[in-house]
Amino acid sequence: MKLLIKSKNILLTLASIALLSSTNVLAKNFEPVIVIHGGTSGLGLTEEEFIKREKVMKESLKAGQNILEKGGSSVDAVIAAIKVMENSPEFNAGKGAVFTSDGFNELDASLMDGKSLNAGAIAMARTIKNPIEAAKIVMDKTPHTLIAGEGADKLAKNNGLEIVNQKYFYTDHRYKQLQDAKKSKKVLLDSDKAKAHLGISTEPYLGTVGAIALDKNGNLAAGTSTGGTTNKMTGRIGDSPIIGAGNYANNDSVAVSCTGTGDIYIRVAAAHEVASLYKYKKLSVQKAAEETIKEVAELGGTGGIISIDKNGKVGYAWTKDKLGMYHGEARIGKEPKIFWPVDKK
Ligand code: ASP
């Protein structure tokens, strides 16, 4: 009898532990972290060029870090970090977006919340100052996941986002880059060495931007924003606004943002591939990013990936043809760190 009561008690204890962990009452302490990228590159930067870009990336990390420090959500941290880079002409997102073959700037962006698995994205937008904010509106206020073209511009306007005209996105260096691309009859990644093989452009370019974060509640989020590729066909949509291709977050595994040959990242379902390799093949987040990059390279693609797993471990990978990926990381109470493809001279 005594033995029966004892085993009943053990069973009850086991059942309550199972219930507690399934409802996440056994709260774990997560160390918040935000990671960003500013594209991959085949170009070396001078000291001066380096400092200019590093400053914006640090500001971006600090914007995300501030939110995480105050206990804010990973979704809000990702948006804040991306907005800083979208407002800078140094990156291929928002203000510094590249040109289509017809001379337009068409913006793509996406956002995913790893807790709810809700996501929102916009593509081919021409008037939205901060595309990442429009992705949030698609996620929160519509029954859809991806809205393209005029519909995205209208949605942003109707929801009070800042609207600009195409002139806002004009920068000399991007326009020159379009001329280079037209001369070489190529669709160029911003990391392509236009200046080396054409001898025309003098400025090195930074690329697509992405941010991923883990907040104190263990929630992951991912965001990506881009102008796409220089000389792309008008109406072309890359991987950045495609959930599972250029962007993905799931609390059960990882948050991922990609940069590179979008037309190939889509075919690899790259961001989701990192999650799958982590979840099913039990690879570390670093290995999962590396394996996915190999798959991208095998199909002729080039670029990079940033990822964070549900425990706050980070993974960075890029294809070998590039000098590397401009990226940075910030943890609570620590100075944000920026990593550059080439050593500071
Ligand atoms: N992935 C982007 C696209 O293909 C470009 C980039 O990341 O540089 O649109």
What does this structure look like?
Strand 9 and strand 10 form a beta hairpin. Helix 2 runs antiparallel to helix 3, helix 3 packs antiparallel against helix 4 and helix 9 crosses helix 10. The protein is built from 10 helices and 12 strands. About 6% of the residues have low confidence. It has an 8-stranded mixed beta sheet with strand order 4-3-2-6-5-1-11-12. A 4-stranded antiparallel beta sheet has the order 7-8-9-10. By secondary structure, the chain is of the alpha+beta class. The chain has a single domain, classed as Glutamine Phosphoribosylpyrophosphate, subunit 1, domain 1. It binds aspartic acid. The site of aspartic acid (ASP) has 16 residues, from strand 8. Aspartic acid binds next to strand 8. GO terms for molecular function: hydrolase activity, acting on carbon-nitrogen (but not peptide) bonds, in linear amides; peptidase activity.
